[in-house]
Amino acid sequence: MKKIIIVFAFLLLQSIVSFSSYSAPAKIKVIVRGKALTMDVAPVVSSGRTLIPVRDIFESLDAYVEWNAKTKSITATRCGKVIKLKIGDNAGFINDAKVMLDASPRMINGKAMVPLRFVGEALGSKVEWDNSTSTITISTDSWVEKTYNTTGNIVNGGFVCSSGEYDYISFYNLGTYKIKHGTSEKIKINVNPVSFINVIGDWIYFVNSDKYPVKSERKTLYRMKTDGTSAEKLASDTTSCALIVDDWIYYINNTDSSRPYKIRLDGKGRQKISNYTASNLMVSNGWIYFINDGNICRMRTNGKDYSVLCEESTGYMSFNDDKDKIYFSMDSYSNSGIYVIKTDGTNKNKLISTEVNCINPSDGLLYYNDFEGNLYKTNEDGSGKKKIANQVKGGLNVSGHWIYYTNYILPKSSSDSNIFETPIESISDMDTDIRANLKTKEFRVMTDGSVRQNMDNEGPFLAIPIYMPGTTFTTPKPIAITSTLRPETTLSPKDIAKNTGAIFLIKTFDENGEPIGSGTGFNIESSGIIVTNYHVIKGAFTIKCSIDKTKTYDVDYVLNYNTLRDIAVLKVKNASNLPVLDLGDSDKLELGEEVVAIGNPLQLQNSVTTGIVSGELRTIFGVSYIQTDASISPGNSGGPLINSYGEVIGITTMSISDSQNINFAVPINSVKKLFPTASIIPLSAASSVDEAYEESEPNNTILKANDFFPNTNMIGTFKDAKDLDYFNFTLNTKTKVTIIGLNEISIYTTSTIAALDLSLIDKSGNDIAKSIIKDESEYTTQNITIELNPGDYKVLVKPSAQYKNNSFSDYQLIFVTD
C-alpha cells in the first residue's frame, strides 16, 4: 500500500512540474510578416520562452524543414543557413556552430515545438515582444529577397530573362537563345522553345513548351546550364507560371487542377501549398498572390492565412517595382481597365479605362497592350500615356530598353489572300496540336517607341523605324497627271479589257520575306505610279508589283495614303514607258452607267467583270463610295473601276458578303485630292500607320487635350456623367472637316446617341459648331460637317443632359477631311 502511495505521489508531482514548465498563457499572439500567424496548436511558454509548432514558424519564414522521427531531430534550411535542433536538447546548431538554448524543443500533444525567438533570430528576422498585448512580432524588413526574373515577365509567359550581360530569349518556332546586351548576335542554347525562364548563376530554370518532341515531357519543369548543357528534369507536373524566390520554385501544377506547388532548386522537397486553384502566381515577402475564380487572393507560402484581397473579374496582375502594389486588369462591360491596390487589398484605384490584353510594370513605368494590338506606356499612376507601337497582340516581356513580344498567327485560307494577317490575342485556350502549327513573328520594340526589330530571322536583327503620328515628310513629290481627251465613242468591255497592261498584281511580304497577301493596283504614270487600296499594303515590309506575269517591280516608296478612304499611291523602282490608265471624273457618274472591273482575284491575273453603277454615291461615316454590281472578289481590292470611255472612275474596295452583289469602290476624285500633297514616305512608315487611337486621361481641360489626327478614329470612355474629353487638331490648309460621334450601342438604338454631345471649339474655347443627329448607314450618329480655315481647333465630347450613368461608357470619333 505504501508503495502504491509513493508511485501516485510521484506521478502527481510529475504532472505539477510538467504544468509549471509548459504553461499556456491566454492568447499569445504571433505576428509574422504583418499578419497574425495561424498555428496548428497554440503557443506555450517554457522557461520564459515561447514555443510554437516547428513547421508553422519555419515555413512561414520560407525555410525547408526536415524531421527525423528516429532521432527526433529537426533540420531547417534557408538561403544557405542550416539550423539543427533536437527534441529535449538545449544545444542547437547554426551552420554547425553550437548555440545554447534558453528553452529546449519539446514534444507537446504530438507536436514538435521550438523556441520562437531563437528560430526567428537565427534566420535573420527581427523578434519583438509587447507585454501589454502578449504579442510577438517577427519582421523580415531587413531581408533582401532574391528573384531571378521579374514578376511582370513571368505572368506574361516568362520568355525573356535578363541575367548578367545576356538576355535569355525563347522563340516559339526557333528555340532558345542568349543575346549579349547591346548586340543582336544570337547564340542558340536549346533547339526547343521554353517558357517561365529564371536564371541563377550558370543555371537556367524553365518549363518545356507544348512543342517539345516528347509529349510526356511537354510543360514539365527543367533546368540546364546557361550554355545549354546538363539538362535535367526537376518535376513531371504539367507546369505554368513558375517563378523562383530565394530557395524555392513556386508554380501552378496543372496536373493537379491548377493548384499551387513549390519545390526546391535541386528538385527536392516538392510540396502542394494549397487546395485552392490558381491562375497567375506571384510571391513576395512570404506571401503568395494569385487569382482564384476571378478574385485576387493571397496566402502564406505555407498555404495558411488565405484571404481575398479584391473580388473582381481579373485578368493579368503584376507587382510594381517595390512590390507594395498590385496592378491588375479587369474585363467587364462597364469597368474594364487597369487598376491598382496595395498588397493588403486596400486603396483600390482605377488608372486606365480600356479593355486590356496584357500588362507589365517595369522601372517605374507601366506597359500594356489592348485587344486592338496597340502598345502603350504610362507612369505608375496612369499619367503620361504614350502609344509606342501597334500590332502587338501577344504577352509583353521587358528587359532594359526593350519590350519583347510574340505575335501568334493562324494559317490563312486561300480565300483570305488579300487580307493582312491579324495576330491573335491569346493561345492559352487553344488546342495543343493547333498551337504547335501556329506561325509566329518575334519582335522587340524600344521603350521610347523609336525602333522595332524583327528577331526571328537567322541573320542579324532587322531594324524597322517607327514613325509616330504627325510625322512630317519633308521631300515633297506632287503628282501631276496630264489630262487626256475623252474618246468620242464608248468602248466595249472587250476593248476596255485590252488595258490589262496597266493592271498590276501586288504582292506584300513581311520582314522575313514571307508573303502576307495580295491585291490589285493600276498604273497612272509611265514611270510607275500605282494606285491601290490602303488595306492591300497594310503591314508590308516589301511590295512587288507584276504586270502580265512578265515583269516585276519593287515598290520604292509611298507617295500618299488615306487609311479611312482606303487609298494608297505607290512609286515603283526603275520603271519607264509603262502603259497607263486615264482618270475620269467620278462626280459625273450617272445611275445605271455601265462599268468594268479588272483585278486579280485569288491571284488570277487580269480577271474582268462587268456591271453598272447600281446606286447613288453612298456616304458611310463621312466617306463616299460608288455602289456597283460589278463582281468584286478577294484579290480584286485596289483594282480599277472603269467607265465605258475607258476612264478609271473608282478603286474597287469591298463587297457586302451576305448581299446580292452589292459592291463598293472609292471615287477616283478622292484619289486626285492626294496628288498635290504627295511626298516621299518610307514604306514602313505608311504600311504600319495607326488607324485608331485611344483617349488618354486626364484630358478634361483644353490644356490637357489629346492630339487627334485627320482621317483616324478615336476611342474614348466616359468615367461618369460629368466627364469632359478634349481633343486637339491642327489644319494647315482650308479644309472641309467631318467629325462623327457614335457610341457602343447606337447600332441598336437611335435614342442613346442623343446622350452624346460633340462641340467644335477654337483654341480659346469658343464654340464654332454643335453636332446634329444624323443617320449613317445602319448607325445613328452625332455629326459635325464644316469648312475650316488653317489653325488649331478642339473637339469637346461630353455626356448630354439625357445621359444617365451606365447608359454607355465607350464612344468613337471618326475624323474625316475632304
Automatic annotation (TrEMBL):
Residues 149-408 form the Prolow-density lipoprotein receptor-related protein 1-like beta-propeller domain. One of its GO terms (molecular function) is serine-type endopeptidase activity. Residues 1-23 form the signal peptide. Residues 32-138 form the Copper amine oxidase-like N-terminal domain. Coiled coil: none annotated. GO terms for biological process: proteolysis. Keywords: Signal. This is Copper amine oxidase-like domain-containing protein.
